[in-house]
Structure formats: C-alpha cells, structure tokens
C-alpha cells in the first residue's frame, strides 16, 4: 500500500462506510500495532469511523411515524 493523500482519504471513506453499515469501531481490519502502513491505515480508518459517528450524533434522524397507529 502506498501511503499518500489518495490512499488516506480512501481509508477514511472506508471507515465511514463501516459505520454506516453498523460495524463497531473495533472491527477495523488494520492493526494499530503492525508496521507503519498498518498503523497509518488503522488511524485513517478509525478517524473516518469517528467522523461518521460524530456526524450521526450531531444530526440524529427522526423516527418515522408508524402508519395506521
């Protein structure tokens, strides 16, 4: 994996998608204890996951009204 801005942003996006899918933050496929690439990937992924969570908490969705009740 080449460590550059494009890769970093892709990993952030991957973390955001994981949050949207309901994955917990510890489901990150990268190791914070691995080599340099793994640590950077872990940081970027968890940053994206955290950004998505913060966004969701800042703008909670209203529950849809139940039909007929």
Provide an overview of this structure:
- With about 70 residues, the chain is an all-alpha fold.
- The protein has one domain (about 5-60).
- It contains two helices and no strands.
- The radius of gyration is 15 Å and the shape is elongated.
- The protein starts with a helix and ends in an 11-residue tail after the last helix.
- This is Ribosome modulation factor.
Short recap of the structure:
It comes from Streptomyces glaucus. With 69 residues, the chain is mostly helical. It has one domain.
Q: Specify the overall morphology.
A: elongated
Helical content (DSSP H or I, runs of 4+): 55-70%
| Beta-strand residue fraction | under 5%
Strands, count: 0
The succession of helices and strands, N to C, reads: HH
Distance between the termini: 54 Å
Number of domains: 1
The residue-averaged pLDDT reads 90
Tally the helices: what do you get?
2
The main sheet comes to: none
Structural class assignment: mainly alpha
Q: What integer value in Å does the Rg equal? A: 15 Å
Which segments are poorly predicted (pLDDT under 50) over 5 or more consecutive residues?
Answer: none
Spell out the key features of this protein.
single chain; 69 residues; 2 helices; mainly alpha; Ribosome modulation factor
């Amino acid at each position: 994996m080449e460590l550059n801005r494009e890769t970093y942003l892709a990993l952030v996006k991957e973390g955001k998608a994981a949050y949207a899918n309901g994955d917990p933050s510890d489901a990150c496929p990268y190791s914070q204890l691995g080599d340099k690439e793994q640590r950077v990937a872990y940081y970027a992924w968890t940053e994206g996951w955290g950004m998505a969570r913060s966004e969701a908490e800042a703008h909670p969705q209203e529950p849809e009204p139940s039909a007929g009740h």
